[in-house]
């Protein structure tokens, strides 16, 4: 399958260290040492080992505090996406191209960041609508980078925001079709499961959401310096393997 998203030319380097959550010191292949923005607020367990190969993008906007953005890191045999803003960009392109057969026939319009919920204070990543006879699809996207034995796991820490999203999606089952899409940000995982060790309540909420009718799409992506390619669905386990 062709690339969904193509990067502007990236710069290779090696990670020196990640610190203060949003900063990473990187030695470029040219020998220059730069500080890049790390667009990932989580612990990045297993994905920030010093000395690992990385790729960064550069933005020449003089108003930016940091010109470089850390995009991906090499872990074992795969590149892992670091930029948590990227999944929503890619999913929007994929939805517009109707790359997900599970959803393709069920919508004709795609809207982003749509207010929903009782107080309209939450925003769903995507609202998909079609004919009047079709239920609207509320689709939330989560980036998955944690892996154990080639099983992709989410979340990598306790996520109150993620718990809230599951509750809100579950509340929609009688009036819409809620979908939780897990963007598996690495190509070396064929299975997805909730990370009960990192957030047991999230695992419970996900299992309850499935029982109530929330659809789960664990989508595998290959991340490479040229771009991002969709690989299809991973197998979905309701519990983290022992």
Which percent bin holds the helix content?
Answer: 10-25%
Mean pLDDT: 95
Distance between the termini: 34 Å
Total number of helices: 3
Please compute the radius of gyration using only Cα atoms. 18 Å
SSE order, as H and E? EEEEEEEHEEEEEHEEHEEE
The share of residues in extended strands comes to 35-45%
**Low-confidence residue ranges:** none
What is the strand tally? 17
Please list the strands of the largest sheet in the order they lie side by side: 1-16-15-13-10-9-8
User: What spatial form do the alpha-carbon principal axes imply?
Assistant: globular
Biggest sheet features: 7 strands, mixed
Output the structural class: mainly beta
Account of the 3D structure:
With 242 residues, the protein is mostly beta strands. 14% of the residues lie in helices and 42% in strands. It has helices at residues 86-96, 160-170, 200-212, and strands at 5-6, 11-19, 23-28, 33-37, 53-58, 68-75, 78-81, 109-116, 122-129, 137-144, 146-148, 151-154, 177-184, 191-194, 215-223, 227-233, 235-236. A seven-stranded mixed sheet has the order 1-16-15-13-10-9-8. The chain has a five-stranded mixed β-barrel with strand order 2-3-4-6-5. Helix 2 runs parallel beside helix 3. The two termini are 34 Å apart. The model has no long low-confidence stretch (mean pLDDT 95).
């Amino acid at each position: 399958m062709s690339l969904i998203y193509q990067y502007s030319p990236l710069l290779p380097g090696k990670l020196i260290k990640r610190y203060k959550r949003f900063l990473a010191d990187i030695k470029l292949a040219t020998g220059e040492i730069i500080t890049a923005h790390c667009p990932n607020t989580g612990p990045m367990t297993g994905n920030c080992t010093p000395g690992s190969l990385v790729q960064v993008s550069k933005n020449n906007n003089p108003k930016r505090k940091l010109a470089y953005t850390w995009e991906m890191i090499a872990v074992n045999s795969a590149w892992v996406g670091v930029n948590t803003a990227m999944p929503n960009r890619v999913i929007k392109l994929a939805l517009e191209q109707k790359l997900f057969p599970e959803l393709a026939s069920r919508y004709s319009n795609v809207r982003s960041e749509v207010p929903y919920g009782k107080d309209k204070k939450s925003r769903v990543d995507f609202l998909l609508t079609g004919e009047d006879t079709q239920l609207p699809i509320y689709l939330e996207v989560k980036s998955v980078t944690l892996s154990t034995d080639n099983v992709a796991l989410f979340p990598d820490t306790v996520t109150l925001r993620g718990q809230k999203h599951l509750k809100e999606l579950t509340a929609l089952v009688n009036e819409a079709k809620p979908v939780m899409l897990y963007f598996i940000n690495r190509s070396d995982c064929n299975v997805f499961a909730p990370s009960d060790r990192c957030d047991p309540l999230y695992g419970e909420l996900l299992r309850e959401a499935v029982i109530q009718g929330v659809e789960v799409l664990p989508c595998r992506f290959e991340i490479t310096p040229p771009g991002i390619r969709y690989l299809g669905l991973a197998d979905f386990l309701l519990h983290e393997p022992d």
